[in-house]
Every structure is written in C-alpha cells, then in structure tokens.
Amino acid sequence: MASIIDLLSRPILEIVEDHLGHAVADPKNLRVSPARNPKFGDYQFNGAMSLAKQLGRPPRELAGELAARLEGLPWLEEIEVAGPGFVNLRLSGAWLSDRIGEVFQDERLGVERPGAGRSVVVDFSSPNVAKPMHIGHIRSTILGFALDRMHRFLGFEVIADNHVGDWGTQFGILLVGYRRFGNPDAFDEDPLEELERVYVEGYQRAQQDPALMEEARRELVRLQQGDPENRRLWEKFVKASLREFDKIYKRLGIAFDVTLGESFYNDRLQALVEELEKKGLASRSDGALVVFLEEEGLPPFIIRKSDGGFNYATTDIAAMLYRIERWDPAKILYVTDEGQQLHFRQLFAVARRIGIQVELEHIWFGIMRLPEGKFSTRDGNVIRLETFLDEAERRAYEVVHRLNPGLDDALKREIARKVGLGALRYADMSQNRQSAIEFRWEKALSLEGNSAPYLQYTYARIQSVFRKYREEFGGGDLQGTRVCVEGDLERKLARTILEFPDYLYRAAAAYRPNHLTDYLFDLASSYNRFYQNVPFLKAPEGTRESRLVLCDLVGRIIRTGLDLLGIEVPEQM
Ligand code: ARG
C-alpha cells in the first residue's frame, strides 16, 4: 500500500516532469506536507512558487494547473489554490474511512517491503575487547540495532555484524601486564574490570620504562606470528570479554548474525596489501605502505606501518571485501562515533579505487554527554554501561510505582524494565544523531514529552480502553466495523495513521530513527487530543466501534514503531 503522502505527491511529480520534459533529480522537494491548520485542508503543496520561477511561469497559474490536474482523484474532496500559489488539499472523508478499514486489516499497517531482494550489512556496536563497555558505546549499539530492525521490516535481508576490536596494539601491554601483575582471582570475578586495571597500570609503567614498552611490542609481534602461549592468553581475554558483552546485549534484546572480530581478517592482510601494491594502488612512503588520496583531497591511508604491522585501516579493507564476497550486499552501513569520519572517508575512497560499487555509508553520531558529576566514579572513570542500565530501571520503577502503587511488585519491576531501558534508548534515538546530546533523566522518563514513557503510557491506556470495552460490551472483535471518519480531530488522527509507512521509509532511507520518533510522538499526541475530546465507550454503537478501530490502529503502530527501535511496550502501566 502506498503511503498517503506518496499517493498525493506522485501526481504532482508527474505533472512537473511533463512540464520539464525530464525526470526530477530530487523528488523530495515535490512532496506535499501536512497542513498546519485544518482551515487549509489536510495537506498542502507549497512547491508551486519555486517551481514557477524555475519554469518562468506565473506561480498562481501554475498552481491552478496543478489543481486542475488533481481534480478527479478519488482520494481528494477539495482542491483549492490560495495566496501566491499554495495548493490546499482536503481528503475525501469516504476515501479516508475506507482506507483506514484497509489498513486495519493489514498486519503490516500499510508498510510495503521496498527492500525485498536486497541485503544490507550493518556493522554496529563493535566494541574493543578487554575493556568494559562504557556508556559511550551505547549509541552505536542502540542506533545500529534500530537500523537493523527497520531494514528487516522493510524487507531487506540484514546481516548484523559485530566488528569487535580484538586485535589491537593493546594486547602487547595486556600480555606483559597480566603476566607481571595480573590477578587471576580478580579476573575470574570480573574479567573486564581486571583487564582494564592491568591495561591502565601497564600503560603507565611502560610510559616510564622503555624496556617494558619494548617488551610489550615484542609480545604483540609474537602474538601476531602465532606464538601458542600468547595466543592462549589472548583467547582467554577475548572470550571473557565477549561473554561480558553478551550479558549487555541480552539485556537489551540485541543479537548479531555474525561476530567477526578484527582478528578474523588477520590471515588475509598480507595478500591484500601485496595485491594493492601490485595493482599500483598503494605505494611506499617513509617505509610505510600507503594509498595516496590526493585527488579526493584526503590524507594518505596507511595500510602497512613502517614497522611492518597492519592496522585498523588494513583490516577494514579486508572486512569490506570479505562482506561483499560473502553476502553480495546492496549496502554496508558502519555505525560509529563522529571521531571516525576521516577514516571512513578514506576507506570509501579506497573502495572506489578498487572499483567497488556497493553503497557504503558511515552512519556517525555525536557524543552523549551526561549531567556533570553524576556519572563518574570517584576516580573520574566513566560509569559502566551496566550501572547506567540499572539506574534506568531503578528510576523507572519509581515512575511506575507513582502511577500505579497497587500493582504487584514483580509486575512493577517488569514494567520498570521496559520503561527504563526504553526511555534510555528513546532519549538517544529521538535526537538528531549528529548532534551532541545531553542526557537528562527527567526528560527521558517524562510521561508528557517526546519520550518512550509517554508513548508506552499511551499504549497501555489504549489497552485499558479495550479491557473496559470487553467488560462492558462483551465484544472486542472489531472485524466488519464500518469506519466513519468525522470532525477535524478524527480526520487528523486518521491521516496520521496513514502516514506511518512514509515516516518509516524516511527514517530508514536517511538512517535517522528520529523521523520515526517524531512521527510516533505526533501520532500519540493526536490520539490523546482526540481521546480527551471525543466520547469513545459512551458513543453510540457503530460510532463507538469505528473509533475503537482508530484506537486499535494507534496502539498497533506505537507497538510496531517502538519495536523497530528495540523498545518494548507494557500492557499496563
Ligand atoms: N572497534 C571500533 C571502535 O571501538 C569500532 C569499529 C567500527 N567498525 C569498523 N568496521 N571499523 O572504535
């Protein structure tokens, strides 16, 4: 089913292309937008003015022509040209009613599968091993997972790949440090904590002791050459780290299709680098091997260091080639913080030189700041992700308890888990991902603003309307209900319901879940306005059921939309 905005925009696009005699490069500018005021109908097309300029025509005349061509479309009831050349559109009430009836029958709520037949690799989370996951890692994990879910829902075959950093230079220090002053009991107790301690201490000592630094380098080389003792210890560190990460993933309901760490590509690097050199893509510079990217205006990409070692860059080229060979994806998405923009620009430039056609996207995000002081331990370390998640659930418990003190405690806890973790995820994803965000509990857990709890609460209240409906009227089955959309509030709600596919496509295409959260917030607000002003259960039979269909659709869209963001809904709150 086409989204309503598509239905209205398509004929406009066609007319414009007729006029131009060629296809429009960016049809986004030719889309209708929801009218701000019901006085102006449901949607407006505001593009006639700039278009008229482009075509050298009087704007009102052009608008009039557009209006004339839209005349007769079954979904429009009124078309009006206003002001300097606005085209105001009012949907046909009968059409709107029928359409709502159709979407009500559709399990997918009108959403098509535009991705069918194509696959996408999503490289996200990808933490470095031997370090606890800090709250800084949360954005890639949360955002990447939402992109994964949305793409799956849109029919793409998704390969979620956790590109864990298990092969970095940190292992030299870790190997030496652990042998010298590691504490095996502490490791068994909390491996990541102990490895971090060993690393920090080892690093500090090595700074002052060149011999130690040299030893760390030697051990790293021995590891890379396959020394069995080093290999064994390395494996122990990696395994323990992955086990700890898994606890977090499990808690957040996140799963990967593959976890291929950097080490996985190690055996391919030598041949890869030789190949690039042979093809003339890489050349020597000060003992290192680099790909010069002057044409692209980028600094050289070092693929073999002067000490002969390979690096992050080399591994990423190998990983890219491997993914293309194994999954033949239409695109590869890399979700990391903003600090890696240069790296990915270089990587993608190298890809073009190799002749890779696959769409490559770096989905970067700004840093998340926390209210000062509150999230640091006494020694200034950032709080571990785990602690942060605990805090979210604890605070959400208070919210749930305030709302509904009589609820069974185990149930309160279960609701608090959904609300707390949901609030945290939503607070992240509802922002422009490229801005630095400041996290605030009050805002994240607010029951009124653009937050997960607000949507969850709206959802829970919808479920309670249905519980009452079943109690009072014994019914519950709305099949066969004739929907009748009347009045401005109901109209606004109905068309917002029909916009769901549009905003979901947009969120996925721009890799910006905030388009979806903005939409869900708008939907819930429209619903709550409608609910507060119009009788539901007290309405006469027929009208009652018709309104309950809208109510049900709002609930299903909220549940589906939040689910795509990795957020669960409680049945009561
Ligand atoms: N491990 C890296 C980090 O923590 C992120 C890896 C992102 N993915 C990639 N293919 N480079 O910074």
Structure in a nutshell:
By secondary structure, this protein is α/β, with parallel strands linked by helices. The protein contains 21 helices and 13 strands. Helix 14 packs across helix 15.
Question: What does this protein look like?
Answer:
There is one protein chain. The chain is of the alpha/beta class and 573 residues long. The protein has 21 helices and 13 strands. It has helices spanning 4-20, 48-55, 59-70, 93-105, 138-153, 170-181, 184-189, 191-208, 210-224, 228-251, 266-278, 312-327, 341-354, 385-403, 409-429, 441-444, 452-473, 488-498, 500-509, 513-533, 543-564; strands at 33-34, 43-45, 76-82, 86-91, 119-123, 157-161, 283-285, 288-293, 298-304, 331-337, 359-365, 368-369, 437-438. The strands form four sheets. It has a four-stranded antiparallel sheet. A four-stranded parallel sheet has the order 6-5-10-11, sandwiched between helices. Strand 10, helix 13 and strand 11 form a beta-alpha-beta unit. Arginine is lined by residues 123, 126-128, 163, 165, 316, 319, 334, 336. The site of arginine (ARG) has 10 residues, from helix 12 and strand 10.
